[in-house]
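Input record (Table S2, row 260):
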Amino acid sequence: MGLIGCGNLGSAMLTRWIANGADPHLIKVVDNHPERITQFNMKSSALEDLSGVDVLVLAVKPWNIVEVLQRIKIEPDTVVVSMAAGVSLSKLAKALPAKQPICRVMPNIGVKLGLGVLAIAFNSYVQSSHKLSVKEILEPLGKTIELKEKDFNAVTALAGSGPAFVSLILESLMMGGVAGGLSSETAKFLALETVNTTLELIESGLHFDELRFLVSSPAGTTVAGLEVLEKDGVRGSIIQSIKAASSRAEELGQEPAGID
Ligand SMILES: NC(=O)c1ccc[n+]([C@@H]2O[C@H](COP(=O)([O-])OP(=O)(O)OC[C@H]3O[C@@H](n4cnc5c(N)ncnc54)[C@H](OP(=O)(O)O)[C@@H]3O)[C@@H](O)[C@H]2O)c1
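Output record (NAP complex):
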């Protein structure tokens, strides 16, 4: 395989691939800064020297994509996998030879730990054998979900920006504990464990409202807290924040460079 761009995302992916047993000698990596590649004890390749790769992953900024694609020589059966936020399949196709198989990926920050969520969309020239190769490469980075490209703005909002929103909610839970007299350490521990427990219960099959009813005793503490959340419109605010992030992704995607 080949990788163009060994910055934040590229080096995180390379770390995961190598940790997962990929042979570094079988990965051709190109970057403007060779030291970003040699830190992995790998030799850097050149843009003009990417022959023989079956999957070519692009992890350069959106505004560098077209220039990079115009400079490389690519074989007709190589699948181009672009991580560039906001750069559409049709824009990628315009800079590549006709009928090139292309995959667009929207990863999130969890990729750094191999716990990412990666939305993927393919163009019509991608065969099932290409899909298998792409999924094999993405597997060490997290969970993949194949979607229509029209859903990518919502994915960017929910899975891309989502960790920032969840982090704010978690911090607020912690601060609530501190306001109740707990140390910040204890409050953080309890906030994180409470979220873990909630996730496990939801994943075990409980629906969101079933879980709420389960912990809501008549005239009890949970009902008192939920009443405040509903009165203050927290549910509506969170829905609106996802819609705002999605609209912004759409706006940025219409700019020539894409999102960044
Ligand atoms: N970071 C994330 O968590 C994240 C999440 C989702 C999507 N993405 C997407 O992933 C892509 C990469 O993001 P990033 O944050 O990893 O960017 P980054 O840290 O800037 O890494 C890009 C690397 O590619 C190099 N590069 C640019 N043009 C090149 C060329 N012509 N030949 C060789 N190397 C070249 C850059 O060198 P210079 O510094 O000299 O330009 C830089 O080292 C972006 O398109 C972004 O939208 C990133």
